[in-house]
Specification:
The complex is a heterodimer of chains A (566) and B (226). Chain A has 566 residues and is mainly beta. Chain A has five helices and 27 strands. Chain A is elongated, with a radius of gyration of 27 Å. Classes of the chains: A mainly beta (566), B mainly beta (226). Strand 16 of chain A pairs antiparallel with strand 13 of chain B.
């Protein structure tokens, strides 16, 4: 039930969890790279005025132990314990950063995350990957910052220099001689024994194992009787079960556990759900099973005119930011697909009426806005995008559109099919919304692999992708041949389909209508098989499905077919 | 058989206008609370509803719409339930509550006759989309229903550092207080038939929202049928 953050998302901690004793885990890794993960306690001017509040490998905790470095555990490369209510008043911001030790750059980083765990429950997670960065050597992952109340922001901002530069940025002095370690890390806080494998007596404080490892349910860090019962309700992992720790969970249990009780049932909002509607912060979680507060019934106070200046500070989140992920995530607005929205009178105001259709916040280079529209943030990655001409519906920022010939091969496509594959190059900085003719869009992220897409079904792709046009000839194919673009490299291809496609595994007997096939994995081989089986009773010229493509390939290959025969 | 179809029965009326599914608008009609709807958008009704295409009052306000051939609106009055749709387009219901919105003419489905409305031409953009870009500005207290080919997206105009540019064919609605201007992205290449395909855009600036649809099909289907 962790809330997924995107870059730039913010939320009040109190909306995430009622606890103030938090575990912050950072996972970041890359081939051959080592990372220093540190926490900067900054003052109101965002300066490191007190370098005792720079928590890193040499200084594993602050004087009053409000921030402690815990080391690697439970799948996290580094972890911290943050006790918000013990943080001194002059610290206004905690910035969690990761810097590369030695050579390397952030673009080599694999998928990672920063997450917040409270009461044994992961309450927030901001996932990032190296694709969001380039040559940076450091990255500010997330901030806890004090604005009336403590809040969390997913920052994900790269930083060119290394740790020293980062330190300088925060106004710290770079002493070659780092401040002497106050205490070896291993001997850290008693109640906070490092992970189980360290043979520590009692890990009363253990984050959940990797959220993506359901089999680990209940196994990791089985809580031995905690030596320090006042372990602040840091009950061990595994959301759905009631915290097995005998520790009297001071704050976590009643407020957090209650709304989370039925996490399996996708209807329960994340703990922080109500925040977008500006409801009071300390509001207790909605009762279990309470349907997601839906856009059509926001409290009347929300009728915010669209031209209101900036959203009030308490607003916390970019509009629509409630959506945890962008793809596949059940829409918390519950806009019931196809089902009548019963008994949900529309609240007054244009903004309220359109709330369900808000732009999804920026997080990645490609963001699917809904099934039929996709946004590309050109500023992210700084590479141009090639898109089918005329597919732009809206853009913000300085974007330049220019003609891009499809090359010689593209010309052939044009001549043969009568419809030239015309591309435009979108360059600059800004966001471009692409859509075409109500077709469903599917961003496919290639990471070194290759895919063949029928040329008519390509909507857009990152320019760094290598592509070539292939021609599959066969009698009976309209236009004489089927044109296929094979993409290879690292980047995203957006494929459009009419209707919901079906993905089939390639078996020895996989056939597809050449007009309906959309894409296939490049390792599968397409063969034209003209199946003209004339039966005695067949009426002339109507053999129906005459030209099929047969696919051959090793297991693991797939083809994508749309319910629409062009 | 009834069992399987029962799921599509109308939900109890809760508001003046509601969605039935994504593509059907259900309007609870009452005497004295008339509705203006696009001609040809009615798909069914229950009760006593009367239709008057292009009534004089509407003709007066909308005399500029299209090329003066009158507004493609009909006044619906009576009591009952009225179902409207536009060739399977998504329907978006907005309770204005005192706000105002500008709607592209062909994306307007219906609105309360009690609202203030007027037809205006977007300056300098008359020749942009095929039929000229006419928009209807609606304000007041009442309901408006828009259509969108595919689920629309609402973009905050003021959010980007720069202006927001929209393909006029994909534009559905916008906040009337936005500044609108046309932009031609002419480049040398465009002159020899090699344009980027995005020759005209409408630029919006200011604080407000812009609604776009995931389709560049701006044909007015209700109008084509006549």
């Amino acid at each position: 039930m962790a809330r997924e953050f995107q870059r730039g998302h913010k939320a009040r901690i109190s909306d995430l969890t009622a606890g103030t004793d938090l575990y912050v885990g950072v996972q970041i890794s890359g081939p051959g790279l080592t990372f220093d993960i540190s926490c900067f306690g900054l003052d109101a001017n965002e300066q490191l005025s007190d370098d005792r509040y720079f928590v890193f490998f040499n200084q594993p905790k602050t004087p009053e132990e409000s921030i402690q470095l815990l080391g690697a555990q439970a799948g996290d490369t580094e972890s911290f314990r943050v006790t918000l209510d013990r943080i001194p008043a002059h610290i206004h911001k905690l910035s969690f950063t990761a810097t590369i030790d030695g050579a390397g750059q952030m673009s080599q980083v694999g998928p990672g995350y920063i997450r917040i765990v409270a009461g044994g429950e992961e309450v927030a997670r901001y996932a990032f990957s190296g694709a969001e960065f380039s040559t940076e050597r450091a990255v500010m992952l997330g901030d806890f910052y004090l604005k009336d109340v403590w809040r969390f922001a997913a920052v994900g901002q790269g930083f060119d220099g290394g740790l020293e530069a980062l330190l300088k940025n925060f106004g710290g002095e770079v002493a070659e001689e780092e401040p002497a370690a106050q205490q070896p890390q291993a001997g850290g806080a008693p109640g906070f024994a490092p992970p189980a494998q360290a043979a520590a007596p009692a890990p009363s404080f253990a984050p959940p194992a990797q959220a993506s490892a359901p089999p680990a349910f209940g196994t990791p860090a089985a809580p031995a009787p905690a030596p320090e019962p006042a372990a602040q309700g840091f009950a061990p992992p595994q959301a759905p079960t009631p915290p097995p720790a005998p520790a009297p969970s001071v704050h976590a249990a009643p407020t957090v556990a209650a709304p989370l009780a039925p996490p399996g049932a996708g209807t329960v909002p994340p703990p922080a759900a109500p925040s977008p509607y500006g409801q009071p912060a300390g509001q207790p979680g909605p009762p279990p099973g309470y349907p997601q507060p839906q856009a059509p019934t926001p409290p009347p106070g929300y009728g915010q005119p669209p031209h209101a200046p900036a959203p009030p500070p308490g607003y916390g989140q970019p509009p629509g930011g409630q959506l945890p992920g962008q793809q596949g995530a059940p829409s918390p607005y519950g806009a019931p697909q196809g089902a009548p929205q019963a008994a949900a009178p529309v609240a007054p105001g244009v903004a309220a009426g359109l709330e369900a259709f808000r732009e999804k916040p920026t997080g990645q280079r490609w963001t699917q806005q809904n099934k039929k529209m996709i946004r590309v943030d050109l500023g992210m990655g700084d590479t141009p995008v090639l898109a089918r001409q005329g597919s732009m519906v809206l853009y913000q920022g300085k974007v330049d559109f220019s003609y891009k010939g499809a090359g010689f091969a593209g010309r052939i496509v044009g001549n043969a099919t009568g419809q030239e594959m015309q591309l435009m190059r979108c360059t600059g900085r800004g966001q471009v919304f692409l859509a075409e003719n109500e077709t469903q869009l599917h961003p496919i992220e290639l990471q070194g692999d290759a895919i063949c897409v029928s040329a008519e079904n390509v909507l857009a792709f990152d320019e760094p992708l290598q592509y070539e046009v292939r021609r599959i000839e066969g009698h009976g194919i309209p236009g004489g041949a089927l044109f296929v673009m094979q993409f290879q490299g690292t980047g995203t291809v957006v494929v459009k389909t009419h209707g919901t496609p079906v993905v089939l595994p390639v078996t020895p007997t996989t056939f597809a209508d050449c007009n309906a096939v959309v894409a296939w994995s490049a390792a599968a081989q397409a063969i034209v098989s003209s199946q003209v089986r004339m039966r005695a009773g067949a009426y002339a010229g109507a053999s129906g499905e005459s030209v099929n493509l047969q696919f051959r390939g090793a297991p693991g290959n797939f083809i994508v077919v749309q319910p629409y025969e062009v | 058989m009834n069992k399987q179809l029962a799921g599509y029965a109308p939900a109890p009326v809760a508001a003046r206008m509601e969605n039935h599914g994504n593509n059907i608008l259900k309007v609870a009609m009452q005497t004295g609370n008339d509705l203006l709807a696009r001609v040809g958008s009615m798909i069914a009704y229950e009760g006593f509803v009367q239709y008057e295409p292009n009534p004089p009052a509407v003709r007066q306000i909308a005399r500029d719409w299209m090329t003066g051939e009158g507004a493609p609106l009909m006044k619906c009055s009576g009591d009952g339930l009225l179902y409207l749709a536009d060739y399977g387009a998504d329907v978006v219901v907005i309770n204005l509550g005192g706000d105002a919105i500008s709607v592209n003419g062909s994306n307007l489905l219906a609105f309360d006759a009690s609202l203030q409305w007027g037809v205006e031409r977007v300056k300098g953009l008359a020749k942009f989309a095929g039929q000229g870009l006419w928009n209807v500005k609606i304000s007041g207290n009442g309901y408006v229903a828009l259509t969108s080919r595919g689920k629309p997206i609402v973009v905050d105009c003021g959010r980007g550092e720069d202006e927001t540019y929209v393909d006029p064919d994909a534009l559905v609605a916008w906040s009337p207080n936005l500044k609108v201007k046309g932009k031609r992205s002419f480049r040398a290449g465009a002159l020899v038939g090699r344009g980027s395909g995005e020759a005209y855009q409408m630029g919006f600036s200011g604080e407000g929202i812009v609604v776009v649809q995931p389709s560049e099909d701006s044909t007015d289907r209700l109008r084509i049928r006549g």
